[in-house]
């Protein structure tokens, strides 16, 4: 397998896989419910996005049967192929990975939400893409970087409002809120507290930007405690992945 190429997404649909995914899903939903209870929130306020990168289409079909409608992917080619293979299911596709401007047009065809808008150039690429390939608006989240390491994606928190303004001003794009990945080696509580402040600043100018996409398998409780409306769960639902994915 060459780097960057997706594996073959066809999988022997083992009967025990369904039971495995059902049990994982129940466990994740229970964690979400407990975290909501502790935070005084209703579990309906938190949307579960299943991040299926590296896993086969057969798993997405099983998750769909189990009631999961929101699917996250982080590479365009893989996401595009899987969305096409699942077109009959009417799922909602979330693009959560770093996005190159030359992929904007492709992503705009199948994604309903792009979680990773981190620069004005990408806003403009998405605006042009939407104008040419889709009729309904594309929801965009401002991805905020919560450490001092540029390169892994995300805008500086000080640039978040400006990016939200650019999204809101772009025909065909909706500014839905903010997204972040808690940095390694940083307490997720403080990272998500910071994100909540950024979310508030964005929302004060763009009241419709109510989403906070935060929390993964290891830190969903902290994220929900700080207002996450969307958690992006991979391993906790699907199991271990190859390194770096
Ligand atoms: C892979 C990924 C996730 C899911 O991470 P897990 O630790 O497997 O739950 C969430 N968000 C982004 C941006 C990802 O790339």
TrEMBL record:
Does Heme show up as a keyword for this record? Answer: no
N6-(pyridoxal phosphate)lysine PTM positions read 53
Give the matching InterPro entries: Ala_racemase_N (IPR001608), PLP-binding_barrel (IPR029066), PyrdxlP_homeostasis (IPR011078)
| Residue ranges of domain Alanine racemase N-terminal in the record | 24-242
Q: Which UniProt keywords apply?
A: Pyridoxal phosphate
The cofactors required by this protein are: pyridoxal 5'-phosphate
One Pfam match: Ala_racemase_N
Q: Which GO terms describe its molecular function?
A: pyridoxal phosphate binding
**Record keywords: Nucleotidyltransferase included?**
no
Q: Which residues cross the membrane?
A: none
UniProt xrefs under PANTHER family: PROLINE SYNTHETASE CO-TRANSCRIBED BACTERIAL HOMOLOG PROTEIN, PYRIDOXAL PHOSPHATE HOMEOSTASIS PROTEIN
Q: Which family does it belong to?
A: Belongs to the pyridoxal phosphate-binding protein YggS/PROSC family.
Q: What does this protein do?
A: Pyridoxal 5'-phosphate (PLP)-binding protein, which is involved in PLP homeostasis.
Protein name (record)? Pyridoxal phosphate homeostasis protein
Q: Which organism is it from?
A: Thermasporomyces composti
């Amino acid at each position: 397998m060459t780097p960057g190429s997706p594996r073959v997404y066809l999988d022997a649909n083992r009967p025990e896989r369904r039971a495995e995914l059902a049990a994982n899903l129940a466990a994740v939903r229970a964690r979400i419910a407990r975290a909501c209870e502790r935070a005084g929130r209703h579990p309906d306020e938190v949307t579960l996005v299943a991040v299926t990168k590296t896993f086969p289409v057969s798993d997405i079909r099983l998750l769909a049967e189990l009631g999961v409608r929101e699917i996250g992917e982080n590479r365009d080619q893989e996401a595009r192929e899987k969305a096409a293979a699942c077109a009959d299911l009417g799922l909602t596709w979330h693009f959560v990975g770093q996005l190159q401007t030359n992929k904007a047009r492709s992503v705009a065809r199948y994604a309903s939400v792009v979680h990773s808008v981190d620069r004005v150039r990408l806003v403009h690429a998405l605006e042009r893409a939407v104008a040419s390939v889709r009729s309904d608006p594309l929801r965009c989240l401002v991805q905020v970087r919560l450490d001092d390491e540029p390169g892994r994606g995300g805008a500086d928190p000080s640039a978040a409002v400006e990016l939200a303004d650019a999204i809101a001003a772009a025909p065909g794009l909706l500014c839905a809120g903010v997204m972040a990945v808690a940095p390694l080696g940083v307490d997720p509580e403080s990272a998500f507290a910071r994100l909540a402040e950024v979310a508030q600043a964005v929302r004060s100018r763009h009241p419709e930007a109510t989403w906070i996409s935060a929390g993964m398998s290891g830190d969903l409780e902290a994220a929900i405690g700080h207002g996450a409306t969307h958690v992006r769960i991979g391993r906790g639902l699907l199991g271990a992945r190859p390194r770096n994915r």
